[in-house]
Protein backbone atom coordinates (compact mmCIF):
# COMPACT_ATOMS: atom_id res chain seq x y z
CA UNK A 1 0.00 0.00 0.00
CA UNK A 2 1.65 3.21 -1.11
CA UNK A 3 0.39 6.63 -0.17
CA UNK A 4 0.25 9.62 -2.50
CA UNK A 5 0.43 13.32 -1.74
CA UNK A 6 -3.30 13.63 -2.38
CA UNK A 7 -4.05 10.84 0.10
CA UNK A 8 -2.26 12.78 2.83
CA UNK A 9 -4.55 15.77 2.34
CA UNK A 10 -7.87 14.34 1.25
CA UNK A 11 -10.10 13.26 4.12
CA UNK A 12 -12.77 10.60 3.63
CA UNK A 13 -14.38 10.42 7.07
CA UNK A 14 -14.00 12.43 10.23
CA UNK A 15 -15.09 11.54 13.77
CA UNK A 16 -15.34 14.56 16.04
CA UNK A 17 -15.74 14.42 19.82
CA UNK A 18 -17.75 11.17 19.71
CA UNK A 19 -19.26 9.74 22.90
CA UNK A 20 -21.46 6.67 23.22
CA UNK A 21 -23.48 5.64 26.27
CA UNK A 22 -25.42 2.45 27.02
CA UNK A 23 -28.53 2.71 29.15
CA UNK A 24 -29.73 -0.15 31.36
CA UNK A 25 -32.56 0.96 33.65
CA UNK A 26 -31.14 3.82 35.67
CA UNK A 27 -27.54 2.84 34.94
CA UNK A 28 -25.66 4.74 32.23
CA UNK A 29 -22.31 3.36 31.07
CA UNK A 30 -20.07 5.46 28.84
CA UNK A 31 -18.39 3.08 26.37
CA UNK A 32 -16.74 5.76 24.21
CA UNK A 33 -15.63 9.08 25.65
CA UNK A 34 -14.93 12.16 23.48
CA UNK A 35 -12.78 10.60 20.79
CA UNK A 36 -11.70 12.25 17.55
CA UNK A 37 -9.84 10.95 14.51
CA UNK A 38 -10.06 11.04 10.73
CA UNK A 39 -9.59 8.51 7.93
CA UNK A 40 -7.92 9.65 4.71
CA UNK A 41 -8.66 8.33 1.24
CA UNK A 42 -6.63 5.23 0.42
CA UNK A 43 -5.19 4.69 3.90
CA UNK A 44 -5.55 1.99 6.52
CA UNK A 45 -6.23 3.27 10.02
CA UNK A 46 -6.06 0.71 12.83
CA UNK A 47 -7.97 0.89 16.11
CA UNK A 48 -6.23 -1.28 18.70
CA UNK A 49 -6.80 -1.92 22.38
CA UNK A 50 -8.12 -4.47 24.83
CA UNK A 51 -11.53 -6.07 24.44
CA UNK A 52 -14.07 -3.70 25.97
CA UNK A 53 -12.01 -0.61 25.10
CA UNK A 54 -14.68 0.73 22.73
CA UNK A 55 -13.17 -0.23 19.34
CA UNK A 56 -16.20 -2.07 17.95
CA UNK A 57 -18.65 0.43 19.46
CA UNK A 58 -16.83 3.21 17.61
CA UNK A 59 -16.94 1.26 14.35
CA UNK A 60 -20.63 0.39 14.70
CA UNK A 61 -21.42 4.06 15.37
CA UNK A 62 -20.24 5.01 11.87
CA UNK A 63 -23.15 3.15 10.25
CA UNK A 64 -25.45 3.58 13.26
CA UNK A 65 -25.60 -0.14 13.93
CA UNK A 66 -25.68 0.09 17.72
CA UNK A 67 -28.71 -1.30 19.63
CA UNK A 68 -30.75 1.89 19.78
CA UNK A 69 -32.43 3.13 22.01
CA UNK A 70 -30.27 1.22 24.54
CA UNK A 71 -27.34 3.12 23.06
CA UNK A 72 -27.16 6.87 22.52
CA UNK A 73 -24.70 9.46 21.25
CA UNK A 74 -24.66 12.28 23.81
CA UNK A 75 -22.14 14.21 21.72
CA UNK A 76 -20.11 14.13 18.55
CA UNK A 77 -20.30 14.07 14.78
CA UNK A 78 -19.33 11.52 12.11
CA UNK A 79 -18.80 13.47 8.88
CA UNK A 80 -18.87 11.61 5.55
CA UNK A 81 -19.16 13.48 2.22
CA UNK A 82 -20.06 16.64 4.13
CA UNK A 83 -22.95 14.98 6.00
CA UNK A 84 -23.19 14.02 9.66
CA UNK A 85 -24.10 10.31 9.64
CA UNK A 86 -25.43 10.55 13.20
CA UNK A 87 -28.07 13.02 12.01
CA UNK A 88 -28.61 11.62 8.49
CA UNK A 89 -32.03 10.50 7.23
CA UNK A 90 -32.68 6.71 7.11
CA UNK A 91 -32.90 6.85 3.27
CA UNK A 92 -29.38 8.30 3.02
CA UNK A 93 -28.02 5.74 5.50
CA UNK A 94 -29.49 2.88 3.45
CA UNK A 95 -27.62 4.14 0.37
CA UNK A 96 -24.37 4.35 2.32
CA UNK A 97 -24.58 1.05 4.23
CA UNK A 98 -23.05 -1.86 2.36
CA UNK A 99 -22.61 0.27 -0.75
CA UNK A 100 -20.20 3.15 -0.04
CA UNK A 101 -19.23 1.97 3.46
CA UNK A 102 -19.15 -1.79 4.08
CA UNK A 103 -18.39 -3.77 7.21
CA UNK A 104 -16.86 -7.15 8.02
CA UNK A 105 -18.25 -8.25 11.36
CA UNK A 106 -16.29 -10.01 14.10
CA UNK A 107 -18.48 -13.11 14.48
CA UNK A 108 -19.48 -14.53 11.07
CA UNK A 109 -21.76 -17.29 12.37
CA UNK A 110 -24.07 -14.74 14.00
CA UNK A 111 -23.90 -12.42 10.94
CA UNK A 112 -24.77 -14.98 8.25
CA UNK A 113 -28.34 -16.20 7.77
CA UNK A 114 -28.43 -19.92 8.69
CA UNK A 115 -31.45 -20.53 6.42
CA UNK A 116 -29.95 -19.22 3.17
CA UNK A 117 -27.15 -20.53 0.98
CA UNK A 118 -23.95 -18.56 0.58
CA UNK A 119 -24.92 -17.77 -3.02
CA UNK A 120 -28.28 -16.32 -2.04
CA UNK A 121 -26.78 -14.10 0.65
CA UNK A 122 -24.13 -12.56 -1.61
CA UNK A 123 -26.52 -12.35 -4.58
CA UNK A 124 -28.93 -10.32 -2.47
CA UNK A 125 -26.34 -7.58 -1.98
CA UNK A 126 -25.50 -7.39 -5.69
CA UNK A 127 -29.16 -7.36 -6.78
CA UNK A 128 -30.07 -4.71 -4.20
CA UNK A 129 -27.15 -2.31 -4.68
CA UNK A 130 -25.91 -3.03 -8.22
CA UNK A 131 -29.23 -3.80 -9.90
CA UNK A 132 -27.94 -7.09 -11.30
CA UNK A 133 -30.26 -9.91 -12.32
CA UNK A 134 -29.96 -13.32 -10.64
CA UNK A 135 -27.67 -14.78 -13.33
CA UNK A 136 -25.28 -11.79 -13.30
CA UNK A 137 -25.21 -11.86 -9.51
CA UNK A 138 -24.33 -15.58 -9.45
CA UNK A 139 -21.42 -15.03 -11.85
CA UNK A 140 -20.11 -12.17 -9.69
CA UNK A 141 -20.61 -14.22 -6.49
CA UNK A 142 -18.45 -17.00 -7.94
CA UNK A 143 -15.76 -14.40 -8.77
CA UNK A 144 -15.85 -13.05 -5.21
CA UNK A 145 -15.61 -16.49 -3.59
CA UNK A 146 -12.68 -17.30 -5.88
CA UNK A 147 -11.10 -13.95 -4.96
CA UNK A 148 -11.12 -14.76 -1.23
CA UNK A 149 -9.88 -18.30 -1.95
CA UNK A 150 -12.82 -20.40 -0.80
CA UNK A 151 -11.99 -24.02 -1.76
CA UNK A 152 -14.25 -25.40 -4.51
CA UNK A 153 -16.15 -22.08 -4.80
CA UNK A 154 -18.73 -23.34 -7.32
CA UNK A 155 -19.68 -26.14 -4.94
CA UNK A 156 -19.57 -23.92 -1.85
CA UNK A 157 -22.07 -21.45 -3.35
CA UNK A 158 -24.79 -23.98 -2.52
CA UNK A 159 -23.54 -24.53 1.05
CA UNK A 160 -25.15 -23.17 4.19
CA UNK A 161 -23.07 -21.32 6.83
CA UNK A 162 -22.99 -24.29 9.24
CA UNK A 163 -21.38 -26.41 6.52
CA UNK A 164 -18.30 -24.15 6.39
CA UNK A 165 -15.39 -23.88 8.80
CA UNK A 166 -14.93 -20.75 10.91
CA UNK A 167 -12.26 -19.43 8.56
CA UNK A 168 -14.35 -20.11 5.46
CA UNK A 169 -17.31 -18.26 7.00
CA UNK A 170 -15.06 -15.28 7.66
CA UNK A 171 -13.91 -15.30 4.05
CA UNK A 172 -17.56 -15.29 2.93
CA UNK A 173 -18.10 -12.20 5.08
CA UNK A 174 -15.13 -10.53 3.40
CA UNK A 175 -16.53 -11.41 -0.04
CA UNK A 176 -19.89 -9.87 0.92
CA UNK A 177 -18.25 -6.68 2.15
CA UNK A 178 -16.17 -6.33 -1.03
CA UNK A 179 -19.10 -7.04 -3.36
CA UNK A 180 -19.88 -3.37 -4.03
CA UNK A 181 -16.26 -2.15 -4.01
CA UNK A 182 -16.86 0.34 -1.17
CA UNK A 183 -14.97 3.57 -0.48
CA UNK A 184 -14.50 2.61 3.17
CA UNK A 185 -14.21 -0.93 4.49
CA UNK A 186 -14.69 -1.30 8.24
CA UNK A 187 -12.96 -4.54 9.15
CA UNK A 188 -13.80 -5.67 12.71
CA UNK A 189 -11.24 -8.41 13.44
CA UNK A 190 -11.31 -9.59 9.78
CA UNK A 191 -8.75 -12.37 10.20
CA UNK A 192 -9.61 -13.54 13.73
CA UNK A 193 -10.88 -16.94 12.58
CA UNK A 194 -8.22 -17.46 9.92
CA UNK A 195 -5.02 -19.44 10.17
CA UNK A 196 -1.75 -17.61 9.60
CA UNK A 197 -1.22 -18.68 5.99
CA UNK A 198 -4.70 -17.52 4.97
CA UNK A 199 -4.28 -14.29 6.97
CA UNK A 200 -1.37 -13.47 4.70
CA UNK A 201 -3.49 -14.15 1.60
CA UNK A 202 -6.38 -11.99 2.88
CA UNK A 203 -4.01 -9.13 3.77
CA UNK A 204 -2.51 -9.22 0.28
CA UNK A 205 -6.03 -9.29 -1.20
CA UNK A 206 -7.15 -6.26 0.81
CA UNK A 207 -3.93 -4.44 -0.05
CA UNK A 208 -4.41 -5.13 -3.75
CA UNK A 209 -8.04 -3.93 -3.67
CA UNK A 210 -7.03 -0.85 -1.73
CA UNK A 211 -4.49 0.16 -4.36
CA UNK A 212 -6.80 -0.66 -7.26
CA UNK A 213 -9.92 1.02 -5.86
CA UNK A 214 -8.38 3.71 -3.68
CA UNK A 215 -10.35 2.15 -0.82
CA UNK A 216 -9.84 3.19 2.79
CA UNK A 217 -9.83 0.63 5.58
CA UNK A 218 -10.70 1.07 9.25
CA UNK A 219 -9.10 -2.00 10.83
CA UNK A 220 -10.16 -3.06 14.30
CA UNK A 221 -7.79 -5.66 15.63
CA UNK A 222 -6.05 -7.03 18.69
CA UNK A 223 -3.41 -8.67 16.48
CA UNK A 224 -0.48 -6.28 16.58
CA UNK A 225 1.54 -8.32 14.07
CA UNK A 226 -1.29 -7.82 11.59
CA UNK A 227 -1.59 -4.11 12.36
CA UNK A 228 2.14 -3.62 11.94
CA UNK A 229 2.07 -5.15 8.47
CA UNK A 230 -0.88 -3.23 7.00
CA UNK A 231 -1.68 -0.01 8.87
CA UNK A 232 -0.57 3.50 7.95
CA UNK A 233 -1.75 5.07 11.21
CA UNK A 234 -2.77 3.62 14.57
CA UNK A 235 -5.16 4.81 17.29
CA UNK A 236 -4.73 3.07 20.65
CA UNK A 237 -7.93 2.87 22.72
CA UNK A 238 -8.39 2.15 26.41
CA UNK A 239 -11.54 2.48 28.51
CA UNK A 240 -13.35 4.30 25.72
CA UNK A 241 -10.64 6.90 25.12
CA UNK A 242 -7.85 7.26 22.57
CA UNK A 243 -4.65 7.33 24.62
CA UNK A 244 -2.28 7.62 21.66
CA UNK A 245 -2.46 8.03 17.89
CA UNK A 246 0.44 8.29 15.47
CA UNK A 247 1.98 6.84 12.32
CA UNK A 248 2.27 3.05 12.51
CA UNK A 249 6.08 3.03 12.37
CA UNK A 250 6.25 5.56 15.20
CA UNK A 251 3.85 3.60 17.43
CA UNK A 252 5.90 0.41 17.09
CA UNK A 253 9.36 1.97 17.28
CA UNK A 254 8.71 4.65 19.91
CA UNK A 255 5.42 4.15 21.86
CA UNK A 256 4.77 7.06 24.20
CA UNK A 257 1.90 5.92 26.43
CA UNK A 258 2.53 3.24 29.11
CA UNK A 259 -0.55 1.32 27.92
CA UNK A 260 0.78 1.18 24.33
CA UNK A 261 4.08 -0.10 25.70
CA UNK A 262 2.20 -2.77 27.68
CA UNK A 263 0.27 -3.87 24.57
CA UNK A 264 3.45 -4.24 22.52
CA UNK A 265 5.05 -6.40 25.21
CA UNK A 266 2.08 -8.72 25.65
CA UNK A 267 2.94 -11.60 23.27
CA UNK A 268 2.00 -14.95 24.87
CA UNK A 269 5.19 -16.61 26.04
CA UNK A 270 6.55 -19.18 28.43
CA UNK A 271 6.55 -22.95 28.22
CA UNK A 272 3.96 -25.65 28.97
CA UNK A 273 3.58 -26.76 32.58
CA UNK A 274 6.04 -29.49 33.66
CA UNK A 275 4.60 -32.95 33.12
CA UNK A 276 5.65 -36.37 34.35
CA UNK A 277 4.61 -39.52 32.49
CA UNK A 278 1.16 -40.67 33.61
CA UNK A 279 -1.78 -42.78 32.45
CA UNK A 280 -3.40 -42.20 29.06
CA UNK A 281 -6.64 -40.19 29.41
CA UNK A 282 -7.66 -39.86 25.74
CA UNK A 283 -6.86 -41.96 22.70
CA UNK A 284 -8.17 -42.15 19.14
CA UNK A 285 -7.52 -44.96 16.64
CA UNK A 286 -8.07 -44.38 12.93
CA UNK A 287 -10.78 -41.80 13.65
CA UNK A 288 -12.81 -40.79 10.59
CA UNK A 289 -15.55 -38.26 9.93
CA UNK A 290 -16.76 -38.38 6.33
CA UNK A 291 -19.64 -36.21 5.14
CA UNK A 292 -21.51 -37.68 2.14
CA UNK A 293 -22.01 -35.58 -1.00
CA UNK A 294 -25.42 -36.53 -2.40
CA UNK A 295 -26.39 -35.94 -6.04
CA UNK A 296 -29.22 -36.67 -8.41
CA UNK A 297 -32.96 -36.88 -7.97
CA UNK A 298 -32.62 -39.83 -5.56
CA UNK A 299 -29.86 -38.08 -3.58
CA UNK A 300 -27.45 -40.99 -3.84
CA UNK A 301 -24.02 -40.61 -2.26
CA UNK A 302 -21.60 -39.67 -5.03
CA UNK A 303 -18.53 -38.87 -2.93
CA UNK A 304 -17.40 -37.84 0.56
CA UNK A 305 -15.86 -34.79 2.18
CA UNK A 306 -13.20 -36.42 4.35
CA UNK A 307 -13.14 -33.87 7.16
CA UNK A 308 -11.23 -36.22 9.48
CA UNK A 309 -9.48 -39.08 7.74
CA UNK A 310 -7.79 -41.74 9.88
CA UNK A 311 -6.37 -39.83 12.86
CA UNK A 312 -4.70 -41.63 15.76
CA UNK A 313 -3.09 -40.11 18.86
CA UNK A 314 -2.71 -40.66 22.62
CA UNK A 315 -2.90 -37.96 25.28
CA UNK A 316 -1.81 -38.44 28.88
CA UNK A 317 -3.56 -36.94 31.89
CA UNK A 318 -2.27 -33.43 32.60
CA UNK A 319 -0.96 -32.85 29.07
CA UNK A 320 -2.01 -30.42 26.34
CA UNK A 321 -2.39 -31.56 22.74
CA UNK A 322 -2.16 -28.63 20.31
CA UNK A 323 -4.07 -29.11 17.05
CA UNK A 324 -3.09 -26.71 14.25
CA UNK A 325 -3.71 -26.36 10.53
CA UNK A 326 -5.51 -24.27 7.93
CA UNK A 327 -9.16 -23.34 8.28
CA UNK A 328 -11.11 -26.24 6.83
CA UNK A 329 -8.37 -28.74 7.71
CA UNK A 330 -10.67 -30.63 10.08
CA UNK A 331 -9.43 -29.30 13.45
CA UNK A 332 -12.85 -28.37 14.84
CA UNK A 333 -14.45 -31.50 13.37
CA UNK A 334 -11.87 -33.59 15.22
CA UNK A 335 -12.81 -31.82 18.45
CA UNK A 336 -16.54 -32.42 17.88
CA UNK A 337 -15.88 -36.11 17.19
CA UNK A 338 -13.90 -36.49 20.43
CA UNK A 339 -16.81 -34.87 22.28
CA UNK A 340 -19.24 -37.26 20.55
CA UNK A 341 -21.21 -34.31 19.21
CA UNK A 342 -21.03 -35.65 15.63
CA UNK A 343 -21.00 -39.18 14.23
CA UNK A 344 -17.62 -40.74 13.55
CA UNK A 345 -15.99 -44.10 12.83
CA UNK A 346 -12.93 -45.52 14.53
CA UNK A 347 -11.98 -45.82 18.18
CA UNK A 348 -12.32 -43.11 20.85
CA UNK A 349 -11.11 -44.13 24.30
CA UNK A 350 -11.53 -42.04 27.47
CA UNK A 351 -9.71 -43.25 30.61
CA UNK A 352 -9.28 -46.64 28.96
CA UNK A 353 -12.98 -47.06 28.12
CA UNK A 354 -14.32 -47.10 24.55
CA UNK A 355 -16.87 -44.28 24.20
CA UNK A 356 -17.30 -44.26 20.41
CA UNK A 357 -20.27 -46.67 20.54
CA UNK A 358 -22.05 -45.20 23.58
CA UNK A 359 -25.53 -43.72 23.09
CA UNK A 360 -26.09 -40.07 24.01
CA UNK A 361 -27.88 -41.22 27.18
CA UNK A 362 -24.94 -43.43 28.16
CA UNK A 363 -22.39 -40.67 27.53
CA UNK A 364 -24.31 -38.00 29.47
CA UNK A 365 -22.62 -38.77 32.85
CA UNK A 366 -19.24 -38.20 31.14
CA UNK A 367 -20.22 -34.67 30.07
CA UNK A 368 -19.17 -33.35 33.48
CA UNK A 369 -15.64 -34.73 32.97
CA UNK A 370 -15.35 -33.67 29.31
CA UNK A 371 -16.10 -30.01 28.64
CA UNK A 372 -15.76 -27.72 25.62
CA UNK A 373 -15.14 -24.05 24.86
CA UNK A 374 -16.43 -23.22 21.39
CA UNK A 375 -14.87 -20.87 18.83
CA UNK A 376 -17.81 -18.43 18.55
CA UNK A 377 -18.82 -17.27 22.05
CA UNK A 378 -21.80 -15.25 20.83
CA UNK A 379 -23.27 -18.28 19.09
CA UNK A 380 -22.67 -20.63 22.04
CA UNK A 381 -24.10 -18.38 24.79
CA UNK A 382 -27.89 -18.13 25.04
CA UNK A 383 -28.95 -14.46 24.65
CA UNK A 384 -31.97 -15.14 26.90
CA UNK A 385 -29.93 -16.34 29.87
CA UNK A 386 -27.94 -14.25 32.33
CA UNK A 387 -24.25 -15.01 32.82
CA UNK A 388 -25.09 -16.60 36.18
CA UNK A 389 -27.64 -18.92 34.53
CA UNK A 390 -25.24 -19.80 31.69
CA UNK A 391 -22.39 -20.77 34.01
CA UNK A 392 -24.68 -22.44 36.54
CA UNK A 393 -26.60 -24.55 34.01
CA UNK A 394 -24.14 -27.45 34.22
CA UNK A 395 -24.21 -27.35 38.02
CA UNK A 396 -28.00 -27.72 37.96
CA UNK A 397 -27.94 -30.54 35.37
CA UNK A 398 -25.32 -32.54 37.27
CA UNK A 399 -26.91 -31.66 40.67
CA UNK A 400 -23.67 -30.28 42.10
CA UNK A 401 -24.33 -28.62 45.45
CA UNK A 402 -27.21 -26.59 46.85
CA UNK A 403 -28.23 -23.13 45.59
CA UNK A 404 -25.76 -21.30 47.84
CA UNK A 405 -22.85 -23.59 46.89
CA UNK A 406 -23.70 -23.20 43.21
CA UNK A 407 -23.71 -19.40 43.56
CA UNK A 408 -20.27 -19.53 45.19
CA UNK A 409 -18.97 -21.81 42.41
CA UNK A 410 -20.24 -19.35 39.76
CA UNK A 411 -18.54 -16.42 41.54
CA UNK A 412 -15.27 -18.39 41.85
CA UNK A 413 -15.36 -19.36 38.14
CA UNK A 414 -15.83 -15.73 37.08
CA UNK A 415 -12.96 -14.63 39.32
CA UNK A 416 -10.74 -17.37 37.83
CA UNK A 417 -11.24 -16.00 34.30
CA UNK A 418 -10.75 -12.39 35.39
CA UNK A 419 -14.35 -11.14 35.28
CA UNK A 420 -16.11 -9.14 37.98
CA UNK A 421 -18.60 -11.47 39.76
CA UNK A 422 -20.99 -8.51 40.09
CA UNK A 423 -21.56 -8.75 36.32
CA UNK A 424 -23.10 -12.24 36.62
CA UNK A 425 -26.67 -10.93 36.36
CA UNK A 426 -26.01 -9.24 33.02
CA UNK A 427 -26.60 -10.79 29.58
CA UNK A 428 -24.11 -11.80 26.83
CA UNK A 429 -24.91 -8.83 24.54
CA UNK A 430 -23.69 -6.48 27.28
CA UNK A 431 -20.14 -7.86 27.02
CA UNK A 432 -17.38 -7.46 24.46
CA UNK A 433 -16.29 -10.39 22.27
CA UNK A 434 -13.31 -11.13 24.50
CA UNK A 435 -15.39 -10.98 27.66
CA UNK A 436 -17.94 -13.38 26.15
CA UNK A 437 -15.15 -15.86 25.44
CA UNK A 438 -14.07 -15.68 29.07
CA UNK A 439 -17.66 -16.42 30.13
CA UNK A 440 -17.55 -19.52 27.89
CA UNK A 441 -14.31 -20.62 29.57
CA UNK A 442 -15.86 -20.06 33.03
CA UNK A 443 -18.84 -22.23 32.03
CA UNK A 444 -16.46 -25.11 31.25
CA UNK A 445 -14.29 -24.61 34.34
CA UNK A 446 -17.12 -24.48 36.88
CA UNK A 447 -17.70 -28.27 36.64
CA UNK A 448 -14.01 -28.98 37.41
CA UNK A 449 -13.67 -31.34 34.41
CA UNK A 450 -10.74 -33.65 33.67
CA UNK A 451 -10.60 -32.92 29.92
CA UNK A 452 -11.40 -29.65 28.12
CA UNK A 453 -11.56 -29.31 24.34
CA UNK A 454 -10.74 -25.67 23.55
CA UNK A 455 -11.71 -24.65 20.01
CA UNK A 456 -9.97 -21.32 19.24
CA UNK A 457 -10.55 -20.08 22.84
CA UNK A 458 -8.29 -17.04 22.44
CA UNK A 459 -9.15 -16.01 18.87
CA UNK A 460 -11.48 -13.20 20.01
CA UNK A 461 -9.08 -11.90 22.68
CA UNK A 462 -6.52 -9.13 22.47
CA UNK A 463 -2.91 -9.97 23.27
CA UNK A 464 -2.94 -8.71 26.87
CA UNK A 465 -5.98 -10.87 27.67
CA UNK A 466 -4.56 -13.79 25.65
CA UNK A 467 -1.51 -13.73 27.88
CA UNK A 468 -3.74 -13.74 30.97
CA UNK A 469 -5.82 -16.64 29.61
CA UNK A 470 -2.68 -18.64 28.75
CA UNK A 471 -1.44 -18.10 32.31
CA UNK A 472 -4.89 -19.01 33.64
CA UNK A 473 -5.01 -22.25 31.64
CA UNK A 474 -1.47 -23.14 32.74
CA UNK A 475 -2.27 -22.48 36.42
CA UNK A 476 -5.51 -24.46 36.26
CA UNK A 477 -3.72 -27.33 34.57
CA UNK A 478 -1.10 -27.34 37.32
CA UNK A 479 -3.71 -27.00 40.09
CA UNK A 480 -6.24 -29.57 38.89
CA UNK A 481 -4.06 -31.75 36.59
CA UNK A 482 -6.35 -30.82 33.68
CA UNK A 483 -5.92 -32.25 30.20
CA UNK A 484 -6.48 -30.00 27.18
CA UNK A 485 -7.10 -30.52 23.48
CA UNK A 486 -6.18 -27.04 22.27
CA UNK A 487 -7.36 -26.25 18.73
CA UNK A 488 -5.99 -22.99 17.35
CA UNK A 489 -4.46 -21.19 14.38
CA UNK A 490 -2.49 -18.94 16.77
CA UNK A 491 0.83 -20.71 16.96
CA UNK A 492 2.25 -18.36 19.61
CA UNK A 493 -0.47 -19.46 22.02
CA UNK A 494 -0.14 -23.13 21.00
CA UNK A 495 3.61 -23.01 21.61
CA UNK A 496 3.10 -21.55 25.09
CA UNK A 497 0.70 -24.32 26.16
CA UNK A 498 1.22 -27.55 24.22
CA UNK A 499 3.23 -30.64 25.13
CA UNK A 500 2.35 -32.45 21.91
CA UNK A 501 1.41 -31.09 18.50
CA UNK A 502 -0.87 -32.41 15.75
CA UNK A 503 -0.55 -30.64 12.38
CA UNK A 504 -3.60 -31.20 10.17
CA UNK A 505 -4.27 -30.56 6.50
CA UNK A 506 -7.31 -31.65 4.48
CA UNK A 507 -8.46 -34.00 7.24
CA UNK A 508 -5.15 -35.83 7.67
CA UNK A 509 -2.22 -35.57 10.07
CA UNK A 510 0.77 -34.10 8.26
CA UNK A 511 3.08 -34.17 11.28
CA UNK A 512 2.80 -35.00 14.98
CA UNK A 513 5.09 -35.34 17.95
CA UNK A 514 6.57 -33.41 20.86
CA UNK A 515 5.61 -29.75 20.41
CA UNK A 516 9.06 -28.42 21.33
CA UNK A 517 10.71 -30.64 18.70
CA UNK A 518 8.31 -29.62 15.92
CA UNK A 519 8.60 -25.91 16.71
CA UNK A 520 12.39 -26.22 16.77
CA UNK A 521 12.78 -28.37 13.64
CA UNK A 522 9.61 -29.00 11.61
CA UNK A 523 10.06 -31.89 9.18
CA UNK A 524 7.23 -31.26 6.70
CA UNK A 525 7.14 -28.37 4.21
CA UNK A 526 3.57 -27.45 5.21
CA UNK A 527 4.54 -27.18 8.90
CA UNK A 528 7.52 -25.02 7.93
CA UNK A 529 5.18 -22.71 5.98
CA UNK A 530 2.83 -22.40 8.96
CA UNK A 531 5.66 -21.48 11.31
CA UNK A 532 7.19 -19.04 8.82
CA UNK A 533 3.86 -17.22 8.44
CA UNK A 534 3.33 -17.04 12.22
CA UNK A 535 6.76 -16.01 13.50
CA UNK A 536 7.73 -13.16 11.24
CA UNK A 537 11.07 -11.56 12.07
CA UNK A 538 10.28 -8.13 13.48
CA UNK A 539 13.10 -6.56 11.50
CA UNK A 540 11.47 -7.74 8.28
CA UNK A 541 7.96 -6.60 9.13
CA UNK A 542 6.62 -3.86 6.95
CA UNK A 543 5.17 -0.77 8.55
CA UNK A 544 3.54 2.13 6.79
CA UNK A 545 4.27 5.76 7.49
CA UNK A 546 1.46 7.92 6.34
What are the SSEs and their pairings?
Blueprint (H helix, E strand, L loop, with lengths): L4 H5 L1 E14 L2 E14 L3 E6 L5 H8 L8 E10 L2 E2 L5 H7 L4 E4 L3 H4 L6 H13 L3 H14 L5 H4 L9 H13 L5 E5 L7 H18 L2 E5 L3 H7 L2 E6 L2 E7 H6 L4 H7 L15 E16 L4 E17 L3 E6 L5 H8 L6 E6 L2 E2 L5 H4 L6 E4 L3 H4 L6 H11 L5 H14 L16 H13 L5 E5 L7 H18 L2 E5 L3 H7 L2 E6 L2 E7 H6 L4 H10 L12
Parallel strand pairs: 3-8, 3-9, 6-7, 7-8, 13-18, 13-19, 16-17, 17-18
Antiparallel strand pairs: 1-2, 1-4, 4-5, 9-10, 11-12, 11-14, 14-15, 19-20
Overall average pLDDT: 87
CATH superfamily of the largest domain: P-loop containing nucleotide triphosphate hydrolases
Structural class call reads alpha/beta
Tally the helices.
22
From the 3D structure, determine the CATH topology of the largest domain: Rossmann fold
Strand order of the largest sheet: 6-7-8-3-9-10
Strand residue percentage: 25-35%
Helix content: 25-40%
State the name of the first-level CATH class of the largest domain: Alpha Beta
Calculate Rg over CA atoms.
24 Å
The coarse overall form would be globular
Identify low-pLDDT runs. 1-8, 536-542
Structure write-up:
By secondary structure, this protein is of the alpha/beta class. Helix content is 37%, strand content 27%. It has 22 helices and 20 strands. The strands form four sheets. Strands 6-7-8-3-9-10 form a six-stranded mixed beta sheet, sandwiched between helices. A six-stranded mixed beta sheet has the order 16-17-18-13-19-20, with helices on both faces. The chain has a four-stranded antiparallel beta sheet with strand order 2-1-4-5. A hairpin with a 2-residue loop joins strand 9 and strand 10 (241-247). The chain folds into three domains: 1-100 and 185-265, Rossmann fold (3-Layer(aba) Sandwich); 109-181, no CATH class; 279-365 and 490-534, P-loop containing nucleotide triphosphate hydrolases (Rossmann fold, 3-Layer(aba) Sandwich).
